[in-house]
Each structure stands twice: as C-alpha cells, then as structure tokens.
Specification:
By secondary structure, this protein is α+β, with helices and mostly antiparallel strands. Helices cover about 40% and strands about 30% of the residues. Strands 3-6-7 form a three-stranded antiparallel β-sheet. A two-stranded antiparallel sheet has the order 1-2. A two-stranded antiparallel ribbon has the order 4-5. Helix 3 packs across helix 4. The radius of gyration is 25 Å and the shape is extended. The N terminus is likely disordered.
Length: about 200
C-alpha cells in the first residue's frame, strides 16, 4: 500500500515549469557574446550588454519577455547607433504578447502567449536621426495652450496659432493640443496639430 500511495503522489505531482535563463547569463554565453561582438565590435560589446541588462531590470514586464526578442530589439537600436537607456529615451524595448506563439494554458484554461520585446523608436529618436542627416533647419514639438489655437486658414487649410508671449501666463493655461513641425534646408515645411483628446485616444 505504501508503494502504491508513493507512486500516486509522484504521478499527480505537477511538473515544475522550466525557469527562464537570466538575461545577463544569456548575453554572456559564448555563442551569444561572440554574435554581439561580431555585429557591433568587441570594444562595444560589454557596454551594449550592460545597457540592455540595466534597461530590462527597470521594467518587470520586460523581464518576462524572451531573451532572444530583447536582444533582437536592442540590436535594431544599435544599428541606428542609439543607446538603449530608458533615461535617454531614444527608443524603447516594449513588451507585447505574440498571439502567434501560444505556450500553454493558465489555471482558468485561457491561452498563454509568449511575451516578446519589440523595438519602438521614440520622438527623441526620430529627432536624433533627423539631426544627423544634416537636412533639417528646424524640428520640434510644442505644447498648445488654451487660447492659442485659432483654427485653420480657409484658403490653405493650414493651422493658425497665436502664442501667448508671457511665459508665466501661458503656463497657467491648460494644454489643449500638440504641434509637431519641421523645416528642411531647402525651405520645405510641414506641421501637424493634434488635440489633446485625439492624442489620448491614439495612446
């Protein structure tokens, strides 16, 4: 009887889920480290690895992503010569559920999908790349406060603004929208205005 009970306990015991290898361990394995050094150079390999580990440690959701996806996303940023530091904010490693990769079921029977990191270039990153091109005279994003937006020009359809000159008075007014614009050295200009509501819906 004791033997049967022991076998029953063993057979009903849940299997331990395989633990994810720590990112720092994964990145310093010979195969992965050699790949990193081959892609970005041996001198920058250590800096690159430290930056990725630091960025990942600051985001618990990112720690749930596969190590391969984190490395792949970070290499995209490195290809653009942008550091992965979230403090600088040139790009972000954003965790997503990959619904093409189911990995099992949870306790409620719902499908669990693999979490992967994706490369997301930020507004700062776009500005950085634009400035490097040497083709831009000016590029910026401006908060639009209440009373500054005057609608569109009836002839051209372009936005019209009248900015409050007193900075203290301007800061007291609520933000109602955002103006993004750029001007090239050849004189070409482009601007886009979004209301705060439209921006929040997009987010």
């Amino acid at each position: 009887k004791e033997g049967k009970i022991e076998k029953q306990i063993i057979s009903t015991k849940k299997e331990d889920k395989p633990k994810k290898v720590a990112l720092s361990t994964y990145l310093t394995t010979d195969t992965v480290k050699n790949h990193i050094n081959k892609v970005i150079g041996g001198e920058n390999g250590t800096r690159f690895i430290s930056a990725i580990v630091s960025a990942t440690q600051a985001n618990p959701q990112l720690q749930e992503c596969t190590n391969q996806s984190i490395l792949s996303a970070a290499l995209q940023g490195e290809a653009l010569n942008l550091p992965p530091s979230p403090q600088l904010g040139y790009y972000y490693l954003v965790p997503f559920k990959n619904k093409k990769k189911p990995i099992g079921k949870d306790e409620n029977g719902d499908t669990v999908y693999a979490k992967e990191a994706q490369f997301q270039l930020s507004a700062k990153g776009y500005k950085q790349l634009a400035m490097r091109s040497g083709q831009y005279r000016d590029i910026d994003v401006i908060y639009i406060h209440e009373g500054e937006y005057l609608g569109r020009d009836k002839a051209t359809g372009k936005y019209k603004f009248e900015f409050i000159e007193d900075d203290d008075e301007r800061e007291e007014k609520p933000i109602i929208g955002y103006l993004a614009y750029f001007e090239l050295l050849n004189g070409f200009r482009k601007q886009i205005y979004w209301t705060k509501l439209k921006m929040e819906k997009h987010a």
